[in-house]
Specification:
Blueprint lengths: L2 E2 L10 H13 L9 H21 L6 E4 L2 H15 L4 E4 L5 H12 L4 E4 L10 H9 L4 E4 L13 H10 L3 E5 L18 E5 L10 E5 L14 H4 L7 H16 L1 H22 L4 E2 L13 E5 L9 H7 L2 E2 L1 E3 L11 H6 L7 E5 L6 H14 L1
Parallel strand pairs: 1-11, 3-4, 3-5, 5-6, 6-7
Antiparallel strand pairs: 2-8, 7-8, 9-10, 10-13, 12-13
Helix pairs in contact: 1-8, 2-8, 3-4, 5-6, 9-12
The structure holds pyridoxal-5'-phosphate.
């Protein structure tokens, strides 16, 4: 038996989506930019997907731009908003994803921006008072604060942060890669200028996602070439990926309530089983607060043993796929920058289990049994 508990890294593609894509690959091959009837059919696929996604987020289709995934959407927002709007100061979190941290740090190294890091509490929750201070003391700022952290599951209050950004006339980008398809969004109620989404985090294929760009902000394209995406993102559209992205979102939101309940149940069950079976297991940040953390992620750390460094490898050999991370830097392994911020200097091995609609209680029983064998 093998179980897959690494759904925050990526999810399996829903079988219905694989079927739809393979049918579409047989029949729709034309370039959506071609003006003949074949091309027009492809164009309809792309535009219907955009309309569907916009409906699900309660926004206009004009604010959705297809990309190759979350990394591109993050890079596009950061680089274009900062350069096009002549921004000289940006704020982010030290626990942001590298798709956000690295482009911001590059712009800082190039002397384009001053980069500030906003404080957070022991669980990774942003200090709103520090955010206000940083905004008050600086010129017009670009703020990038992720919705949910992919490693520790901490969720930020996008509504409040958006209101603060509006008060200080800041541009607000949020990396929502771990939450689109898992939480509802009403763009009419959020003051967010940019968001990023990636289909493979909610049972769509890899290499496709979108950038949400509010009507209030204009940028020039990051990728230049043809006139696709209304001149905002050049390159022949990934029509199968785009159709699959829209279908994955539709499936996610159609069954959201039941799915959230089911996955929260799995997470709760795993917490209970781990607490019973593994002495001194501990959980990162707010992971055990089921309603106030990313419900798909359970990030824990275990007592240090002589196999600490090899825990993930051993679990893999025993048939359990999950993600690891160590807070400390050891040897060639730099460790996780997120865990190092949350639990500094810890030698306790950290493991992230992450769940999807396709996991079962049996998967969790199996993973806990295998962990027991190692401790
Ligand atoms: N941002 C976050 C929070 C993520 O978890 C990921 C994926 O690991 C990304 C960005 C990058 O997304 P993609 O894999 O679609 O480039």
């Amino acid at each position: 038996m093998k179980v897959y508990l690494d759904n925050a890294a990526t999810t399996p593609i829903a079988p219905e989506i694989i079927e739809m894509m393979s049918e579409m690959m047989k029949t729709n091959f034309a370039n959506p930019s071609s003006v003949h009837s074949f091309g027009r059919e492809s164009k309809i696929i792309v535009e219907s997907a955009r309309k569907k996604i916009a409906e699900l987020l309660n926004t206009s289709p004009g604010s959705i731009f297809f990309t190759s995934g979350g990394t591109e959407a993050d890079n596009m927002a950061i680089k274009c908003a900062i350069q096009n709007h002549k921004i000289t100061h940006a704020i982010t979190l030290r626990i942001s994803h590298h798709a956000v941290l690295y482009p911001l740090q590059d712009l800082h190294k190039e002397g384009v921006i001053k980069l500030s890091y906003v404080d957070f509490d022991k669980d990774g929750v942003v200090s709103l008072s520090h955010l206000k201070e940083l905004l008050a003391d600086n010129p017009r700022t670009f703020v990038s604060i992720m919705h949910a952290n992919n490693e520790i599951g901490t969720i930020q209050d996008l509504k409040k942060i958006g209101e603060i950004c509006k008060e200080f006339n800041a541009i607000f980008h949020s990396d929502t890669v771990q939450t689109i398809g898992h939480y509802t969004f009403n763009m009419q109620e959020l003051n967010v200028d940019f968001m990023a989404a990636s289909a493979h985090k909610f049972h769509g294929p890899k290499g496709v996602g979108f950038s949400y760009i509010s009507d209030n902000i204009k940028i020039k394209p990051l990728i230049r070439g043809g006139g696709q995406e209304r001149n905002m993102r050049a390159g022949t559209e990934n029509i199968y990926g785009i159709a699959a992205l829209a279908m994955a979102m539709e499936m996610a939101y159609e069954n959201l309530e039941a799915e959230v309940k089911y996955i929260k149940g799995l997470k709760e069950y795993m917490i209970k089983r781990l607490k019973i079976e593994i002495a001194d297991v501990q959980f990162y940040a707010k992971c055990t607060d089921i309603d106030n953390s990313l419900y798909t992620v359970l990030s824990c750390h275990f007592p240090e043993t002589d196999i600490s460094e090899m825990l993930l490898f051993n679990l893999d050999i025993l048939g359990v796929a999950c993600s690891g991370g160590s807070a400390c830097a050891s040897g060639g392994n730099k460790g996780s920058h997120v865990l190092a911020e949350i639990v500094p200097d810890s030698k306790r091995p950290g493991i992230r289990f992450s769940f999807s609609r396709y996991n079962t209680k049996e998967d969790i029983d199996f993973a806990v049994e295998k962990l027991k064998e190692l401790f």
